[in-house]
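Write out the 3D structure for:
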Amino acid sequence: MKKGIISNVEKLQIIDFVKENRPVIEIAVELDRSVESVEKYIDEIKSIFKEKVEPIIPGVDDKVIDQVKGQLSQLGLTEISINNKLNKIIKELSESELRDITTETLYAYCIRLINVGDVMISKTDGGQKGVAVMTEAAAQKSDHKPTPKKINHEHIYKIY
């Protein structure tokens, strides 16, 4: 049985086996590792597999939702993040506002909820963390930081 740190190749194999719903014991035998070490790594990566997309709360025209989702996905947001933001907005608006909302207005509300971290790429396609890439949207969002307050010089005295 192998000892030591699980290699990157073995980590990728474990992820594939978990996606195939293989039992931990089978994975451990396949990789010639202890059940405890395989379970420990699976516990570390469980968040990747537990993230599920929340359905969007009804109330807004489906065509408007689809257009806004398309625009937000072009910014680099994940489907989970998009649905969370849309649901937050839908909960805050009244029924009459929801019926009359346009694509542009809903998109503007969503943009206000986005922070730079939402539009930075922080995972690889395989779900592994460890990268940080600033997208165009993240760069634009960080450029629009509020300017620092100017110091009121009336109350600064120099003592010689």
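The two ends are 76 Å apart (CA to CA).
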